[in-house]
From TrEMBL:
Residues 70-148 form the GHMP kinase N-terminal domain. The active site is at residues 13, 140. This is 4-diphosphocytidyl-2-C-methyl-D-erythritol kinase. It comes from Streptantibioticus parmotrematis. Belongs to the GHMP kinase family. IspE subfamily. The gene is ispE. It is an enzyme of class 2 (transferase). NCBIfam families: ispE, PRK03188.1.
Length: 308
């Protein structure tokens, strides 16, 4: 055990393709989930303490649970149980990723706490063991650990790294209030039932990654990528939050190459040609007053990283 605090930085994600299969008997959906890590970060600092304690700072801190339902706490408990360590740690989360925004903020904290505790306790868990614990914590958590770009299969936890060429410039419109991920998946099923196509795994075609999209990521051509960005959860997020239509329109009119809901939403993501175009999209979104905050960033960026 080291006595010095350990700080880990973990990025948010955007899904450049989210193909959703039918509802499985276990309540999850099979996915073809193309993740991209982007430069909005939470920082998790682990310090020795007399007991497990969570504190959170940042503008959305009041929305984050401080009990054992916090994904950072669950990560510490899972690692401690496996290695026979007492989970005596103070985890401080400096939160910059929007809460319940479809950008995997809680997942970032789970992956970050796991890496921070592994380093603090000198547990020496293997990468595969860390990934297995991440998958138990949530479908998005393994990607928060690895970052970069990756294809997630199964419920999103089975990752295959993807090659990317060049930097992609993004603008994110943060909404007032979050959306619950299970509620958005339920709405997706409801819309499929209402359309008469059915929502079970037998009714919905197996989700598959788009070859054009993987090629566009490889070349890093934002124009080619913009043409094929796709999120099967977008109609459900818009159905639950119709005002997102105005946000998506404002960013498109502001010069974005493409606009889509990030994961389960309600954050909206806009792909821009270059940094100047991204600033133009951000200004248009701010003028439109269709969102609570605007963030300009880029990706891919590395996953959870120990800063010390
Ligand atoms: C929307 C995405 O963010 C896209 O990356 C993820 O699929 C959500 O991942 P997550 O927040 O880590 O979700 P989990 O904590 O694993 O699951 C929360 C709930 O979301 C639904 N869920 C999640 C993942 C999945 N492949 N199918 C689902 O139906 C289930 O109702 C599940 O009970
Ligand atoms: N460390 C955490 N940070 C934020 N929320 C957390 C955390 N731990 C648990 N939660 C709970 O999880 C809910 C979803 O939060 P989160 O910010 O992860 O959503 P999200 O970004 O939409 O997730 P995803 O994109 O993975 O579907 C919150 O409303 C909160 O109750």
């Amino acid at each position: 055990m080291t006595a010095a605090p350990v700080t880990v930085r973990v990025p948010a994600k955007v899904n450049v393709q989210l193909a959703v299969g039918g509802l499985r008997p276990d309540g999850f959906h099979d996915l073809a989930n193309v993740f991209l890590a982007v430069g909005l970060y939470d920082e998790i600092t682990a310090t020795p303490s007399d007991r497990l304690r969570i504190t959170v700072s940042g503008p959305d801190a009041h929305q984050v649970p401080l009990d054992e339902s916090n994904l950072a706490a669950r990560a510490a408990l899972a690692l401690a149980a496996r290695h026979g360590v007492e989970p005596r740690v103070h985890l401080h989360i400096a939160k910059d990723i929007p809460v319940a925004g479809g950008m995997a903020g809680g997942s970032a904290d789970g992956a970050g706490a796991l890496l921070a505790c592994d380093t603090l306790w000198e547990t020496g868990a293997t990468r595969d063991e860390l990934l297995a614990i991440c998958a138990e914590l949530g479908s998005d958590v393994p990607f928060s650990l690895v970052g970069g770009a990756a294809l997630g299969r199964g419920r999103g936890e089975l990752l295959e790294p993807l090659e990317t060429g060049g930097v992609l410039h993004w603008v994110f419109a943060v909404a007032d209030g979050g959306l619950s991920t299970p509620a958005v998946y339920r709405e997706c099923d409801r819309l499929r039932e209402a359309a008469g196509t059915g929502s079970s795994a037998a009714d919905v075609p197996e989700p598959a990654p788009s070859g054009d999209l993987l090629r566009a990521l490889r070349t890093g051509d934002p124009g080619a990528l913009a043409a094929v960005l796709a999120n099967d959860l977008q109609p459900a997020a818009v159905s639950l939050r119709p005002s997102l239509t105005e946000t998506l329109r404002a960013g498109s009119e502001g010069g974005a190459l493409a606009a889509l809901v990030s994961g389960s939403g309600p954050t909206c993501a806009f792909l821009a040609k270059d940094p100047e175009a991204a600033e133009g999209v951000a200004e248009a979104l701010l003028r439109s007053a269709t969102c609570r905050a605007v963030r300009v960033t880029s990706g891919p960026v590395p996953g959870a990283t120990v800063l010390r």
